[in-house]
Design goal:
With about 240 residues, this protein is an alpha+beta fold. Helix content is about 35%, strand content about 20%.
Protein backbone atom coordinates (compact mmCIF):
# COMPACT_ATOMS: atom_id res chain seq x y z
CA UNK A 1 0.00 0.00 0.00
CA UNK A 2 2.83 2.40 0.90
CA UNK A 3 4.48 1.68 -2.45
CA UNK A 4 1.29 2.77 -4.22
CA UNK A 5 0.81 5.94 -2.15
CA UNK A 6 4.36 7.29 -2.62
CA UNK A 7 4.21 7.65 -6.45
CA UNK A 8 0.77 9.27 -6.10
CA UNK A 9 2.07 11.87 -3.64
CA UNK A 10 5.08 12.62 -5.86
CA UNK A 11 2.79 13.06 -8.86
CA UNK A 12 0.43 15.30 -6.91
CA UNK A 13 3.31 17.48 -5.77
CA UNK A 14 4.54 17.80 -9.34
CA UNK A 15 1.10 18.93 -10.53
CA UNK A 16 0.84 21.54 -7.76
CA UNK A 17 4.32 22.84 -8.62
CA UNK A 18 3.44 23.05 -12.32
CA UNK A 19 0.20 24.93 -11.65
CA UNK A 20 1.91 27.41 -9.34
CA UNK A 21 4.66 28.11 -11.87
CA UNK A 22 2.12 28.60 -14.68
CA UNK A 23 0.12 31.04 -12.55
CA UNK A 24 3.12 33.34 -12.21
CA UNK A 25 3.27 33.68 -16.00
CA UNK A 26 -0.48 33.46 -16.67
CA UNK A 27 -0.42 35.88 -19.59
CA UNK A 28 2.54 34.35 -21.43
CA UNK A 29 0.39 33.54 -24.48
CA UNK A 30 -0.30 37.24 -25.02
CA UNK A 31 3.37 38.17 -24.95
CA UNK A 32 3.70 39.32 -21.35
CA UNK A 33 6.54 41.78 -20.94
CA UNK A 34 8.24 41.26 -17.59
CA UNK A 35 9.92 43.94 -15.55
CA UNK A 36 10.11 47.70 -15.73
CA UNK A 37 11.96 50.11 -18.01
CA UNK A 38 14.16 52.72 -16.37
CA UNK A 39 13.18 55.62 -18.60
CA UNK A 40 10.18 57.43 -20.03
CA UNK A 41 7.70 56.08 -22.56
CA UNK A 42 9.49 58.04 -25.28
CA UNK A 43 12.85 56.65 -24.22
CA UNK A 44 11.47 53.12 -24.25
CA UNK A 45 10.24 53.53 -27.83
CA UNK A 46 13.61 54.97 -28.88
CA UNK A 47 15.33 52.00 -27.25
CA UNK A 48 13.41 49.63 -29.57
CA UNK A 49 14.30 50.75 -33.12
CA UNK A 50 13.51 47.23 -34.35
CA UNK A 51 9.81 48.00 -33.80
CA UNK A 52 9.32 51.74 -33.37
CA UNK A 53 11.70 53.79 -35.57
CA UNK A 54 8.94 55.29 -37.73
CA UNK A 55 6.58 55.55 -34.78
CA UNK A 56 9.11 57.75 -33.00
CA UNK A 57 9.31 59.97 -36.11
CA UNK A 58 5.52 60.20 -36.25
CA UNK A 59 5.30 61.10 -32.56
CA UNK A 60 7.75 63.96 -33.09
CA UNK A 61 5.89 65.23 -36.16
CA UNK A 62 2.64 65.16 -34.17
CA UNK A 63 4.38 67.02 -31.32
CA UNK A 64 3.41 64.39 -28.77
CA UNK A 65 6.96 63.53 -27.71
CA UNK A 66 6.83 66.00 -24.81
CA UNK A 67 3.62 64.42 -23.47
CA UNK A 68 5.06 60.91 -23.77
CA UNK A 69 8.11 62.07 -21.84
CA UNK A 70 6.51 64.02 -19.01
CA UNK A 71 2.86 63.04 -18.48
CA UNK A 72 1.48 59.91 -16.78
CA UNK A 73 0.00 58.01 -19.73
CA UNK A 74 -1.07 54.65 -21.10
CA UNK A 75 0.14 54.10 -24.67
CA UNK A 76 -1.06 51.33 -26.97
CA UNK A 77 2.01 51.38 -29.21
CA UNK A 78 1.50 50.50 -32.89
CA UNK A 79 4.58 49.09 -34.60
CA UNK A 80 6.30 50.35 -37.74
CA UNK A 81 4.74 47.52 -39.77
CA UNK A 82 1.29 49.00 -39.08
CA UNK A 83 2.43 52.40 -40.35
CA UNK A 84 4.00 50.83 -43.46
CA UNK A 85 0.91 48.79 -44.37
CA UNK A 86 -1.37 51.80 -43.95
CA UNK A 87 0.84 54.03 -46.11
CA UNK A 88 1.01 51.30 -48.78
CA UNK A 89 -2.78 51.01 -48.96
CA UNK A 90 -3.32 54.77 -48.88
CA UNK A 91 -0.80 55.18 -51.71
CA UNK A 92 -2.78 52.77 -53.87
CA UNK A 93 -5.88 54.89 -53.30
CA UNK A 94 -4.00 58.13 -53.99
CA UNK A 95 -2.49 56.70 -57.18
CA UNK A 96 -5.89 55.62 -58.51
CA UNK A 97 -7.10 59.20 -58.06
CA UNK A 98 -4.03 60.65 -59.78
CA UNK A 99 -2.75 62.29 -56.61
CA UNK A 100 0.78 62.52 -55.20
CA UNK A 101 1.74 59.50 -53.11
CA UNK A 102 3.48 59.35 -49.73
CA UNK A 103 7.24 58.80 -50.02
CA UNK A 104 8.14 59.36 -46.36
CA UNK A 105 6.29 59.91 -43.08
CA UNK A 106 7.18 63.61 -43.35
CA UNK A 107 4.94 63.86 -46.44
CA UNK A 108 1.86 63.27 -44.28
CA UNK A 109 0.56 66.50 -42.71
CA UNK A 110 1.19 66.79 -38.98
CA UNK A 111 -2.55 67.17 -38.13
CA UNK A 112 -3.21 63.75 -39.71
CA UNK A 113 -0.56 62.06 -37.60
CA UNK A 114 -1.82 63.87 -34.50
CA UNK A 115 -5.43 62.86 -35.08
CA UNK A 116 -4.56 59.22 -35.70
CA UNK A 117 -1.94 58.91 -32.96
CA UNK A 118 -4.12 60.42 -30.27
CA UNK A 119 -6.39 57.36 -30.44
CA UNK A 120 -3.66 55.24 -28.87
CA UNK A 121 -2.89 57.45 -25.86
CA UNK A 122 -4.84 57.68 -22.58
CA UNK A 123 -4.30 59.87 -19.55
CA UNK A 124 -3.41 57.85 -16.46
CA UNK A 125 -1.94 54.40 -16.00
CA UNK A 126 -4.04 51.36 -16.95
CA UNK A 127 -2.50 47.91 -16.69
CA UNK A 128 -4.21 44.77 -17.93
CA UNK A 129 -5.82 44.00 -14.56
CA UNK A 130 -7.37 47.49 -14.47
CA UNK A 131 -9.42 46.85 -17.61
CA UNK A 132 -12.75 44.93 -17.55
CA UNK A 133 -13.65 41.83 -19.50
CA UNK A 134 -15.09 41.95 -23.00
CA UNK A 135 -16.79 39.17 -24.93
CA UNK A 136 -17.43 40.39 -28.47
CA UNK A 137 -20.08 37.67 -28.96
CA UNK A 138 -21.85 38.62 -25.67
CA UNK A 139 -21.18 42.33 -25.73
CA UNK A 140 -24.14 43.34 -23.57
CA UNK A 141 -23.02 40.97 -20.82
CA UNK A 142 -19.27 41.64 -20.99
CA UNK A 143 -18.92 45.06 -22.66
CA UNK A 144 -15.41 46.09 -21.66
CA UNK A 145 -15.32 49.86 -21.27
CA UNK A 146 -15.46 52.98 -23.43
CA UNK A 147 -12.83 55.60 -22.62
CA UNK A 148 -11.81 59.00 -23.91
CA UNK A 149 -8.37 58.98 -25.47
CA UNK A 150 -5.84 61.81 -25.20
CA UNK A 151 -7.58 63.93 -27.84
CA UNK A 152 -11.11 63.03 -26.67
CA UNK A 153 -12.02 60.39 -29.25
CA UNK A 154 -14.19 57.68 -27.70
CA UNK A 155 -12.25 54.40 -27.79
CA UNK A 156 -13.06 50.95 -26.48
CA UNK A 157 -10.78 48.73 -24.38
CA UNK A 158 -11.43 45.28 -23.00
CA UNK A 159 -9.79 42.01 -22.02
CA UNK A 160 -10.89 38.82 -23.76
CA UNK A 161 -10.96 35.83 -21.38
CA UNK A 162 -10.32 32.89 -23.68
CA UNK A 163 -11.71 29.41 -23.15
CA UNK A 164 -9.59 26.43 -22.28
CA UNK A 165 -11.08 23.20 -23.54
CA UNK A 166 -14.69 23.09 -22.38
CA UNK A 167 -14.06 25.53 -19.53
CA UNK A 168 -15.28 29.02 -20.42
CA UNK A 169 -13.22 32.14 -19.60
CA UNK A 170 -10.43 30.30 -17.75
CA UNK A 171 -7.79 30.45 -20.50
CA UNK A 172 -5.26 33.16 -21.29
CA UNK A 173 -6.32 36.79 -21.39
CA UNK A 174 -5.76 39.17 -24.28
CA UNK A 175 -6.13 42.93 -24.28
CA UNK A 176 -7.85 44.72 -27.17
CA UNK A 177 -8.05 48.39 -28.17
CA UNK A 178 -10.93 49.12 -30.54
CA UNK A 179 -12.50 52.00 -32.39
CA UNK A 180 -15.93 52.54 -33.92
CA UNK A 181 -17.91 55.51 -35.09
CA UNK A 182 -20.95 53.90 -33.41
CA UNK A 183 -20.68 52.49 -29.88
CA UNK A 184 -23.32 49.79 -30.45
CA UNK A 185 -21.03 48.04 -33.00
CA UNK A 186 -24.05 47.62 -35.28
CA UNK A 187 -24.23 50.69 -37.49
CA UNK A 188 -20.49 51.10 -38.14
CA UNK A 189 -17.43 48.83 -38.34
CA UNK A 190 -15.72 47.93 -35.06
CA UNK A 191 -11.97 47.99 -35.69
CA UNK A 192 -10.12 45.81 -33.18
CA UNK A 193 -6.40 45.99 -32.41
CA UNK A 194 -5.07 43.03 -30.41
CA UNK A 195 -2.20 43.61 -28.00
CA UNK A 196 0.96 41.50 -28.29
CA UNK A 197 2.83 42.62 -25.14
CA UNK A 198 1.17 44.02 -22.04
CA UNK A 199 2.28 45.94 -18.97
CA UNK A 200 5.60 47.38 -20.11
CA UNK A 201 6.28 49.94 -17.37
CA UNK A 202 8.41 53.01 -18.10
CA UNK A 203 8.72 55.63 -15.38
CA UNK A 204 5.75 57.73 -16.55
CA UNK A 205 3.09 55.15 -17.33
CA UNK A 206 2.54 51.89 -19.15
CA UNK A 207 2.98 50.65 -22.73
CA UNK A 208 0.92 47.92 -24.39
CA UNK A 209 2.54 46.96 -27.71
CA UNK A 210 0.00 46.11 -30.42
CA UNK A 211 0.26 43.20 -32.81
CA UNK A 212 1.51 44.66 -36.07
CA UNK A 213 0.29 42.34 -38.84
CA UNK A 214 -3.49 42.63 -38.43
CA UNK A 215 -3.56 46.30 -37.46
CA UNK A 216 -3.76 49.37 -39.67
CA UNK A 217 -2.44 52.59 -38.16
CA UNK A 218 -5.34 54.88 -37.28
CA UNK A 219 -7.74 51.88 -37.38
CA UNK A 220 -9.32 52.84 -40.70
CA UNK A 221 -7.29 53.15 -43.91
CA UNK A 222 -10.21 54.95 -45.54
CA UNK A 223 -10.29 57.54 -42.76
CA UNK A 224 -6.52 58.04 -43.02
CA UNK A 225 -6.87 58.53 -46.79
CA UNK A 226 -9.71 61.05 -46.37
CA UNK A 227 -7.65 63.13 -43.92
CA UNK A 228 -4.64 63.10 -46.25
CA UNK A 229 -6.83 64.33 -49.11
CA UNK A 230 -8.37 67.01 -46.90
CA UNK A 231 -5.01 68.42 -45.79
CA UNK A 232 -3.11 67.56 -48.96
CA UNK A 233 0.11 65.57 -49.06
CA UNK A 234 2.72 67.95 -47.66
CA UNK A 235 -0.02 69.92 -45.88
CA UNK A 236 -2.13 72.86 -47.01
Amino acid sequence: MKKQILPFLIGLAAVVLLLSSCKKDYYQDTGLAKGQFNGTIMEYLQARPDYFTKLVQVIKIAKLDDALSKEQLTFFAPGDASIDSTIHEVNLMLYLQGKDTIKAVTDVPAPVWREMLGKYIFKGKFKLNDIPQVDFSLFKTYPGVYMKCYDDFIMHVGVVYNDEGSAKYVGYRQLFLSYSDAPDQQSAPFYRAPVASVNIEPTNGVVHALQTKPHRFGFSTGNFFDRCVFYGIGGK
